[in-house]
Amino acid sequence: MTTTENKTMDICEIKSYLPHRYPMLLVDRVLNYEENKTLTAIKNVTANEEFFNGHFPHKPVMPGVLMIEAMAQAAALLSFKSIGLKPDENSVVYFVGIDNARFKRPVGPGDQLRMDVEIVRNARGIWKYKAVGSVDGQVALEAELMCTIRSVE
């Protein structure tokens, strides 16, 4: 019988890989990852999020662009773990493209957005991922994300 190691990341480790900080850091924990394959992370959505002040005060909904951004941050973590690189202050992951983004249900205060990202391919410095966000087992959004790691010197 073989066992697989459950690889996780807490918020301190996440912050050592991503340059984002409040209010733009949108990954709270990595539940599991496998280099060069997949990563599962969560964003705990609270009523205290800044964006709920204007989107929408009478029925708070997490903006779709921020859900996509959260999945892109999860994808960046998977890329850095896959290449065994810990970025410095001059490294950044940029969006190159977003395809087939679909929003299936709103995400609001009290929800836990689970993000599953899978590497589809890595060619010529462009990473392509399949990304799915869900709440309580229901798909909230899905998209294909393309990103690249660059130096910003």
From TrEMBL:
Q: Which Pfam families match?
A: FabA
Q: Locate the coiled-coil region(s) and give their ranges.
A: none
Recorded E.C. number(s)? 4.2.1.59
Which residues are responsible for catalysis? 55
**Taxonomy, superkingdom:** Bacteria
Chief location of this protein?
Answer: cytoplasm
Q: Which reaction does it catalyse?
A: a (3R)-hydroxyacyl-[ACP] = a (2E)-enoyl-[ACP] + H2O
User: Per UniProt, which keywords does this protein have?
Assistant: Cytoplasm, Lipid A biosynthesis, Lipid biosynthesis, Lipid metabolism, Lyase
For this chain's UniProt record, which GO biological process terms are given? fatty acid biosynthetic process; lipid A biosynthetic process
Do you know which SUPFAM superfamilies this protein is assigned to? Thioesterase/thiol ester dehydrase-isomerase (SSF54637)
Localization in the cell: Cytoplasm
* GO MF annotation terms: (3R)-hydroxyacyl-[acyl-carrier-protein] dehydratase activity
CC per GO annotation: cytoplasm; membrane
Family designation:
Belongs to the thioester dehydratase family. FabZ subfamily.
Protein role: Involved in unsaturated fatty acids biosynthesis. Catalyzes the dehydration of short chain beta-hydroxyacyl-ACPs and long chain saturated and unsaturated beta-hydroxyacyl-ACPs.
This one is known as 3-hydroxyacyl-[acyl-carrier-protein] dehydratase FabZ
By which gene is this protein encoded?
A: fabZ
